Amino acid sequence: MKKENLKALLFFVIGTELIGGLSGLLSGGNFSAFYNSLIQPPLAPPGWLFPVMWTILYALMGISAYQIYISKNDEKTNALTLYGIQLAINFLWSIVFFRFKSLSGAVFVIILLLFLIILMMIKFKKIRKSAALINIPYLLWTAYASYLTIGIYLLNRNL
């Protein structure tokens, strides 16, 4: 791999990880206490699993964005813009859920995020199929997180 390409890859992976980390920092203190205080829907995982999964998913997202960045396709700027938009919405979810404790707001954000991920993957596929495929775990995890968010909202809206 060329030195410039390695720098670009590191930029996308580390940059995406930092955005996820910043979201966590801005989300407030003790995630576990709030998460564990909520009535959970069936199949809810332990709280420790979320940071592990998101670390992996952010790395995959960064790799996929890098694949688009190095492509020669004229649509790569539009695709990377969509990537940035979905990443910004992803950034907001933890803040809305944990800092503001807005369960209904978190439902709105995660449904919007799910929609944007699908759009991003469609756009990525037109440029480089592998860039779309590498986001399948992200799409599946976000679909699962949507189920959890909606379930938590429904089970806790009257508390």
Which features characterize this protein?
159 residues; mainly alpha; Ferritin; elongated
Description:
The structure is a single chain. The protein is mainly alpha-helical and 159 residues long. It contains 7 helices and no strands. The protein is elongated, with a radius of gyration of 16 Å. The model has no long low-confidence stretch (mean pLDDT 95).
Describe what is shown at a glance.
The protein is built from seven helices and no strands.
Instruction: Tell me the overall shape.
Output: elongated
CATH C-level label: Mainly Alpha
Structural class: mainly alpha
Stated plainly, the CATH topology is called Ferritin
The unreliable regions are none
Major β-sheet, in short? Answer: none
Beta content comes to under 5%
Helix/strand order, N-terminal first: HHHHHHH
Number of strands: 0
The quaternary organization reads as single chain
Roughly what percent helix?
A: over 70%
Overall domain count: 1
- The number of distinct helices, counting runs of at least 4 residues, comes to 7
What does the average pLDDT come to? 95
Look at the structure and name the CATH superfamily: TspO/MBR protein
CATH architecture: Up-down Bundle
Topology of helices and strands:
Blueprint: H1 3-26, H2 31-37, H3 49-69, H4 76-99, H5 103-127, H6 129-133, H7 136-156
Helix pairs in contact: 1-3, 1-4, 4-5, 5-7
